[in-house]
Design a protein that fits this description.
Elements: E1 5-10, H1 17-30, E2 35-39, H2 45-55, H3 64-88, E3 92-96, H4 99-109, H5 114-125, E4 132-137, H6 140-145, H7 160-176, E5 181-185, H8 190-208
Parallel strand pairs: 1-3, 1-4, 2-3, 4-5
The structure holds thymidine-5'-phosphate.
């Protein structure tokens, strides 16, 4: 039975998700919670192998349908091995990307059928939908500029138009699932971004104790 609390951080590359995730972990631990920190794609031996295939620029020919199925496969394994057991044990799980990345990148960015991507991922997550999702919103131009272009992975190498569709996708998801998703402007100092996140999640965590 699920007793923990599940938080996901979403947004473009370069929005500062990793920094915010580390702060959130520290705060949750200070509040006395056992935490689990994971990321997608990856987080399990199978998922890490799938991540290698998904992000390696040598597989530039990969079509969005293959992408969607591989991301969902990595997710299914992560939920089974890590997220599900941790939530059942009452832990706070914080995940860097989850179902909304597939909806934004593969459905909006890759222009796959939204309901297909949603259904596939609802099957993959086996009921473990996040309790709270933060989208760190940033203009994709700014996000890509914050990264070293020579190290760009296969997803980062996609066109600016693709990344603009992804951003619109994330914002559309927040409108569609307002009870779960909160949009946070990421083009601000790290402390301000974290204050906006904590303001929303702090009360929920306090209520859990
Ligand atoms: P990251 O670990 O740097 O965030 O890289 C993961 C990349 O994969 C990132 O560009 C977003 C992309 N992605 C998808 O396209 N769909 C997904 O479901 C997930 C989890 C990530």
């Amino acid at each position: 039975m699920r007793k923990g609390y599940f938080i996901t951080l979403e947004g473009p590359d370069g929005a500062g998700k990793t920094t915010q995730l580390q702060r959130l972990l520290t705060f949750a631990q200070q509040y006395g919670f056992e935490t689990v920190n994971t990321r997608e794609p990856g987080g399990t031996p199978v998922g890490d192998a799938v991540r290698g295939i998904l992000l390696d620029p040598q597989y530039g020919e990969m079509i969005p349908l293959t992408e969607a199925l591989l991301y969902a496969a990595s997710r299914a394994q992560l939920v089974h091995e890590v997220i599900g057991p941790a939530l059942d044990a009452g832990k706070v799980v914080i995940c860097d990307r989850f179902i909304d990345s597939s909806l934004a990148y593969q459905a909006y960015g890759g222009e796959l059928d939204f309901d297909f991507v949603l259904r596939t991922n609802v099957a993959a997550i086996n009921g473990y939908m996040p309790d709270q999702t933060f989208i760190l919103d940033l203009n994709p131009k700014e996000g890509l500029a914050r990264r070293d272009a020579s190290l760009a992975d296969r997803m980062e190498q996609k066109s600016l138009a693709f990344h603009q569709r992804v951003r619109e996708g994330f914002l559309a998801l927040a409108t569609r699932f307002p009870e779960r998703i909160i949009v946070i402007a990421a083009n601000r100092p790290v402390e301000d971004v974290f204050a906006s996140i904590w303001e929303n999640v702090g009360p929920a965590l306090t209520a859990l104790r």
